[in-house]
Write a structure and sequence with these properties.
The structure is a single chain. This protein has helices at residues 5-10, 27-36, 78-81, 95-107, 121-130; strands at 16-17, 41-42, 46-48, 58-63, 66-74, 90-92, 112-118, 136-139, 150-152, 155-159. It has five helices and ten strands; from the N terminus they run H-E-H-E-E-E-E-H-E-H-E-H-E-E-E. The chain is globular, with a radius of gyration of 16 Å. It has a six-stranded mixed β-sheet, covered by helices on one side. Strands 1-2 form a two-stranded parallel ribbon. Strands 3-6 form a two-stranded antiparallel ribbon. By secondary structure, the chain is of the alpha/beta class.
């Protein structure tokens, strides 16, 4: 996975959610990649056997005078999508349950919550249906292009396509 780091660093991302392929060479390599990036690699649902999070769960940013929390999730299926030795000692917790727990706490600290997910469109929809207070879910994993945002329970869901075939863009405007 190291060959892609210069490209994504050049693109000047602000934050990235870990995906299942970030674990294809073992979770220790995931941590090495994290250190090589010029921006945070986040996930709130990957835990070590000692009960500690593997990655930073939330990235905070001030944008246009507003305070944002970017909450990351990776698919629970990671444990079966890569070789078992790559994720030995890790637990991939339910992103829906964690979103239900974490979003209300984040809303006490910030103006807006953005979920950056690599859990697939069906799970994104479950999160939106079951959790109030999320502005946008920027999703991935299932390679389903959404040519227009979905709007579920007050949350917009967007997802680009796959393998760099297209570049997604989301413009958000907040008015008092």
């Amino acid at each position: 996975g190291e060959s892609i780091v210069p490209l994504v660093n050049y693109l000047d991302y602000d934050v990235m959610a870990a995906g299942n392929h970030e674990f294809d060479y073992g979770w220790q390599q995931t941590l090495k990649l994290k250190r090589m990036l010029n921006f945070p690699l986040i996930s709130a649902n990957v835990y070590r056997s000692n009960g500690k999070l593997l990655l930073t769960p939330v990235y905070y940013a001030n944008i246009g005078g507003e305070r944002f929390a970017f909450l990351g999730f990776v698919t629970q299926e990671t444990s079966i999508l890569t070789h078992a030795k790559n994720v030995a000692g890790l637990e991939f917790k339910d992103p829906v349950a964690l979103a239900q727990e974490l979003v209300p706490k984040l809303k006490q600290k910030v103006d807006h919550v953005i979920v950056v997910s690599h859990v697939g469109i069906q799970v994104d929809r479950k999160i939106a249906k079951s959790v109030k207070g999320i502005d946008v879910i920027i999703g991935g994993h299932t390679q389903v292009p959404l040519w227009a945002p979905e709007f579920i329970n007050g949350t917009f869901i967007v997802q680009d396509w796959e393998y760099g075939k297209t570049l997604g863009r989301l413009d958000m405007f907040y008015f008092d």
